[in-house]
UniProtKB/TrEMBL annotation:
Protein name (database record): NADP-dependent glyceraldehyde-3-phosphate dehydrogenase
Entry-linked Pfam families: Aldedh (PF00171)
Lineage per the UniProt record: Bacteria, Bacillati, Actinomycetota, Actinomycetes, Kitasatosporales
Entry superkingdom: Bacteria
GO molecular function: glyceraldehyde-3-phosphate dehydrogenase (NADP+) (non-phosphorylating) activity; lactaldehyde dehydrogenase (NAD+) activity
Residue span, Aldehyde dehydrogenase domain: 23-476
Gene3D superfamilies, sorted: Aldehyde Dehydrogenase, Chain A, domain 1 (3.40.605.10), Aldehyde Dehydrogenase, Chain A, domain 2 (3.40.309.10)
Record EC number: 1.2.1.9
Keyword Oxidoreductase applies: yes
Keyword Oxidoreductase included in the entry's annotation: yes
Membership in a protein family: Belongs to the aldehyde dehydrogenase family.
């Protein structure tokens, strides 16, 4: 069985090579407090060195042949496959994520790098447009290709310590944009391990760095004019603070959500309700609910509400909680005891305001029991904010229009799931729901890594998903050829 590098001091990656700074911080398991590793913190001079190197290499990197970038991406993908078990254990140890979900995350990162390799080979063939549609354009042709906007600053959160780093790095390499990645301080080890794999490639020095920069030194990096693109995943509070502080930069913000699963009247057979209940229970609790597309709100038609809710409660109670390293565990701890205390306070607030706790509602250290609430009053925090914990609310509605209005009654708009068999309803949902993605016949928590992913309203701006992030990191530059025999 491969071993996680216990309590080793992890160097960071400065312009493609390992380096250490003057200080370190500890990374501990949220499950048992065990020290998982120590991480070296870059000094100001080292951060400057990484930025200067990325800036200096930007033109050369953009001009790298596609096969070089694709080969590097393929290499990382293959090495992730080879080291899957070790990396899954690392994710599980630093994040508290159950090992089966951690293995799934590594599998997704394998795909992200593979998709990026494929896209790198296809990217920028150019698009020709004849301009002789008017007399003034006779003999003229526009050739449009995309070029990097510049060095990318990627900021990743703790909930998918590997794959959300992959979603920043892989598209940047695919387009030839240098990237400086800041992993989340709670879970930096997976992002640093990605550096090990990148260091095995022929990518030019300076084209990538992984720097665990403390937050108090982030504003300077965010303001740095040599980094014109910021790709951030995390809370709306921090994301918008960053964007507001640099209004002239290109910011992609992938922020929170309070994902809704709608169960409509036609989804009423016993088989339908069992499927919906099981999917809802699984995906309100996966990664302890710490995914911005986890199910937070169930919006069920009144005609089936009384048959659905007991099934959901039973399926939630069947979730296996406990040690994240155990293959059988479905739900582990949250990222920290503070996070679990916050979830506890929101559930307690809702209960005091009249909500019924149908199951769960208990905390043990950093672990919070999978929880279902009904009759949650509109004004409480749980009704308005992203809970980011293993908690779901159930709500009764009359008909499709009321259900869709309830989904849209949120400041967030990331993804929604609609359980229906009706094609017309599916199209109406697609048109009516103010979200970045509508999943028909399943929960909102489905993300394929190659599809466009991102939100509207407070859920963010811009799209990730390999090709879409590549578009985001680049801009169109047109070349007009003249005097041609078109
Ligand atoms: N959309 C999503 O997937 C996510 C949503 N969230 C939501 O956010 C809540 C809080 O989680 P949290 O991890 O604190 O999320 P944050 O938004 O605070 O953190 C996300 C990333 O941004 C970093 N960061 C924090 N402050 C700054 C800053 N001023 N400048 C640059 N980078 C900064 C964080 O580092 P550091 O950890 O040191 O603060 C981390 O790497 C969650 O409960 C959840 O509701 C969180 C994570 C992901
Ligand atoms: O499945 C995923 O990739 C995540 O849910 C996306 O990450 P997010 O929770 O940060 O959106």
């Amino acid at each position: 069985m491969p071993q996680v590098h216990e309590a080793a001091t992890h160097a960071f990656w400065l312009a493609g090579r390992q380096a250490t700074g003057e200080a370190t911080f500890d990374v501990s398991s949220p499950w048992n407090g065990r020290l998982v590793g120590k991480v070296s913190v870059p000094t100001d001079a080292q951060i400057e060195e990484a930025v200067a190197a990325a800036y200096a290499v930007r033109d050369a990197f953009a001009a790298t042949p596609a096969h070089v970038r694709a080969a590097a991406l393929d290499h990382v993908s293959k090495r992730l496959v080879e080291r899957t078990e070790e990396i899954a254990q690392l994710i599980s140890a630093e994040n508290g994520k159950p090992i089966k979900w951690a293995r799934g995350e590594v599998g997704r990162a394998v795909s992200v790098f593979r998709f990026a390799a494929e896209e790198a080979r296809r990217f920028n063939g150019g698009e020709a447009q004849r301009l002789d549609t008017d007399a003034g354009g006779a003999g003229r042709l526009a050739l449009t290709r995309r070029f990097p906007k510049g060095v990318v600053l990627g900021i990743a959160p703790f909930n998918f310590p590997l794959n959300l780093c992959a979603h920043k790095i892989a598209p940047a390499i695919a387009v030839g944009a240098p990237i400086i990645l800041k992993p989340a301080p709670a879970t930096p080890l997976s992002g640093l391990l990605l550096g090990e794999l990148l260091a095995e490639t022929d990518l030019p020095a300076g084209s990538w760095s992984v720097l665990p920069v403390p937050n108090d030194r982030m504003p300077a990096l965010v303001q740095d004019e040599r980094l014109p693109v910021i790709s951030f995943t995390g809370s709306d509070k921090v994301g918008y603070a960053i964007m507001d502080s640099v209004p002239r930069k290109h910011c992609t913000l992938e922020l929170g959500g309070n994902g809704a699963a709608v169960v409509l009247a036609d989804y009423a057979s016993d088989e339908d309700l069992d499927w919906a209940a099981n999917r809802i229970a699984t995906f309100s609790n996966y990664q302890g609910g710490q995914s911005c597309i986890s199910v937070q709100r169930v919006i069920a038609d009144a005609s089936l509400y009384d048959r659905l809710v007991p099934r959901i409660v039973a399926a939630v109670e069947a979730q296996v909680t406990g040690d994240p390293s155990d293959d059988a565990t479905d739900v582990g701890p949250l990222v920290s005891e503070d996070a679990a205390k916050r979830v506890e306070s929101w559930v307690d607030e809702a209960a005091q305001a009249g909500a019924q706790v149908l199951t769960g509602g208990k905390r043990d250290g950093a672990s919070y029991a999978p929880t279902v609430l009904a009759d949650v009053p509109a004004g409480v925090t749980l009704s308005c904010e992203e809970v980011f914990g293993p908690v779901l609310t159930v709500q009764k509605v009359n008909g499709e229009a009321e259900a869709f209005a309830a989904v849209n009654d949120s400041k967030y708009g990331l993804q929604a799931g609609v359980f229906t068999h009706d094609l017309q309803t599916a199209f109406r949902a697609h048109r009516a729901l103010e979200v970045g993605g509508v999943v028909i016949g399943d929960v909102p928590s489905y993300r394929a890594d190659q599809m466009p992913y991102g939100g509207v309203k407070q859920s963010g701006v811009g799209r990730e998903g390999v090709r879409f992030a590549m578009d985001d990191y680049t801009y169109e530059r047109v070349m007009i050829l003249t005097g041609l025999a078109l």
